[in-house]
Amino acid sequence: METVQDSIECRGSALDASRTRVVLFDFDGTLSLIRSGWVDVMVPMMVECLLQLKTGESEQELTDTVADYVARLTGKQTIYQMIELAGQIRRRGGQPLEPLEYKHMYLSKLSHKIKDRVGGLRNGACPPEEFLVPGARRLLEALRERGLKLYLASGTDQPYLREEVKLLRVDSYFDGRIFGALDDYESFSKKMLIDKIISESDFAGEEFLAFGDGYVEIQNVKEVGGVAAGVATDEPLCTRVDEVKRQRLLDVGADWIIPNFLAHEELMKTLFP
Prior knowledge:
This protein is α/β, with parallel strands linked by helices. It is 45% helix and 12% strand. The chain folds into 2 domains: 165 residues, 3-Layer(aba) Sandwich (Rossmann fold), CATH 3.40.50; 85 residues, no CATH class. The model has no long low-confidence stretch (mean pLDDT 93).
């Protein structure tokens, strides 16, 4: 049996989140495991598209190329990975489809992969905790008890996001502050949401705390002076730190690295000494 890791890696001993008033969460891989394995759907689909161009590149070479940019764009809206795919096809002399078409192809394949998970949650056969990162609910409760405003921002499309948040029964923690990707992708980003919160309220950038397993939300919150916890979940079990995620999160300034939320009491004491 694999040992469950729940330790907190601190980048700097003097850091804390005592000024925090707003907490921004990513969803997939940070709170939710419903879509765990999405990379194993997206990467092969893209590799297949590139193989059809018969450029002489091996399947492994193309897989390495695709895996690199998919990881680099994780946390942004899905459409950005499809824009990159279209660009890769164009650079190889091909005529790509519109990125939105590739996105719909991917979502169809992903929907097939996760249909039993979603179905089980809908009919009650699967308890929500089965598809939550371990300890997530306890942390959400602790943050809400402190009177903090919780926001959820995801690269997953808004309709899917809102349903999955309800299926996991975590919607009440966010009180409607749930934001997902739109087909008009230029009208939403995590950075735009942060800027909007700051401009339309009395919250300052240094009063933000982010939790995410992708670089985007970590980078965006650090850019406005906030603090950030990198959730380096090794999906789907989340028993240890994923070293690739860990390094990516540290590279954009994550103040803490955690594998899950099992040490929620220790984490709260670390964040709010």
